[in-house]
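FORM 12-B: Structure-to-Sequence Request
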């Protein structure tokens, strides 16, 4: 009897959003997975699904940029990186949006004045009309489209979904209907990849909606957190999911810190409310999107029992990632390194379960990578003086000594 098993497993990758912090986490985690897993190439998967910040990463991987190349471009900003990401792309004021709304203000103000006097409407009702003159976003992300279009037009890459060697789906939300817009799928694949990334990452309030055809589109996370069902419906054997934002369990984190012998001053925030409004809002946002994702994951497991699903996300007790600013790019090196090390730690702790699941698809865990205590994602800064070189050498020597003294 001829086996119906595929010669090679069909593997998909789904990447959720989470602002610059989410992209930083995903780059670090992907580098760890790429190094620790043998038998899988993250630039040759059958399907990539990206939402919001995850769309940047998914589009790059589908265009054969390796996780390490993404790290050089997005995290290290190395001079020798072919594609250097500049965070200033996301900080250009939305001058065009400001101008369009400013033109509307005089007529709206006169209308509000008429309604509040001659029309005898309440002042609050009259002022509501002025809402139309407020900008829909503070910053323009038009450079995302322009820069990615340039990067994806180079030899061996494509800015056209239809000419990629793999399936790429970038999900945005149609602002007028509230429905998901799966760019890259049949009927949606005529839109340039760079434009789809721009639309999928247009967070309402921060960036104006992106006009494509006769509709406006915003961040894909408004509808779902991950949209992994897009790949599951096509039929895959293994689905890897990366989700960068999780609610913080401060009680468990404080207990773990106590076990490690940390002083109260070094344990962080014992209660979310102690962190003030930013901490409360962050916890609320994370809890809302994560609860949606948990429901989705349970549905996927029931609806697609023949597909192995592996979810990679931060530890709920990870205070360092929780305390980081979601929209900050300044600490990218430290946070990417943290994500890299935490993902390696997760693979070690779940080694038995994951090894059996991966083995069904010809993937094995590289123990020499997982057990290498010296392994780093981002190396020390290049020494430019004798003193700097000596300091780096001393740090490496002390690290070697520490590894030798660790109990077996």
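FORM 12-B RESPONSE
SEQUENCE OUT:
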């Amino acid at each position: 009897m001829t086996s119906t098993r595929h010669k090679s497993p069909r593997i998909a990758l789904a990447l959720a959003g989470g602002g610059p912090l989410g992209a930083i986490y995903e780059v670090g985690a992907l580098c760890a997975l790429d190094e620790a897993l043998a038998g899988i190439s993250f630039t040759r998967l059958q399907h990539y699904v990206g939402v919001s910040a995850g769309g940047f990463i998914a589009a790059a991987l589908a265009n054969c940029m390796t996780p390490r190349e993404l790290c050089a471009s997005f995290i290290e900003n190395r001079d020798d990186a072919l594609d250097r990401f500049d965070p200033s792309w996301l900080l250009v004021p939305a001058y065009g949006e400001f101008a369009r709304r400013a033109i509307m203000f005089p007529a709206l103000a006169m209308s509000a004045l008429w309604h509040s006097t001659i029309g005898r409407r309440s002042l609050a009702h009259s002022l509501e009309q002025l809402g139309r003159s407020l900008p829909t976003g503070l910053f323009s992300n038009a450079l995302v489209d322009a820069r990615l279009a340039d990067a994806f037009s180079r030899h061996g890459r494509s800015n056209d979904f239809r000419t990629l060697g793999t399936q790429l789906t970038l999900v945005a939300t149609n602002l007028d209907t509230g429905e998901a817009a799966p760019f890259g799928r049949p009927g949606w694949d005529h839109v340039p990849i760079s434009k789809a990334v721009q639309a999928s990452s247009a967070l309402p309030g921060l960036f104006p909606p992106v006009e494509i055809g006769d509709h406006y589109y915003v961040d894909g996370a408004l509808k779902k957190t991950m949209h992994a069902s897009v790949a599951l419906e096509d039929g895959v054997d293994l689905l890897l999911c990366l989700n960068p934002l999780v609610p913080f369990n401060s009680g468990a984190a404080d207990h773990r810190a106590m076990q490690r012998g940390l002083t109260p001053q070094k344990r962080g925030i014992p209660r979310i409310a102690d962190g003030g409004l930013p901490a409360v809002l962050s916890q609320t946002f994370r809890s809302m999107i994560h609860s949606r994702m948990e429901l989705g994951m349970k549905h996927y497991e029931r609806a697609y029992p023949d597909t192995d699903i592996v979810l990679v996300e931060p530890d709920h007790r990870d205070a360092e990632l929780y305390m980081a600013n979601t929209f900050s790019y300044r600490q990218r090196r430290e946070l990417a390194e943290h994500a890299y090390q935490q993902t390696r730690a997760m693979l070690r702790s779940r080694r038995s379960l994951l090894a059996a699941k991966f083995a069904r698809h010809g993937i094995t865990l590289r123990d020499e990578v997982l057990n290498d205590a010296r392994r780093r994602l981002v190396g020390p800064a290049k020494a430019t003086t004798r003193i700097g070189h000596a300091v780096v050498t001393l740090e490496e020597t002390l690290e070697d000594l520490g590894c030798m003294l660790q109990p077996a």
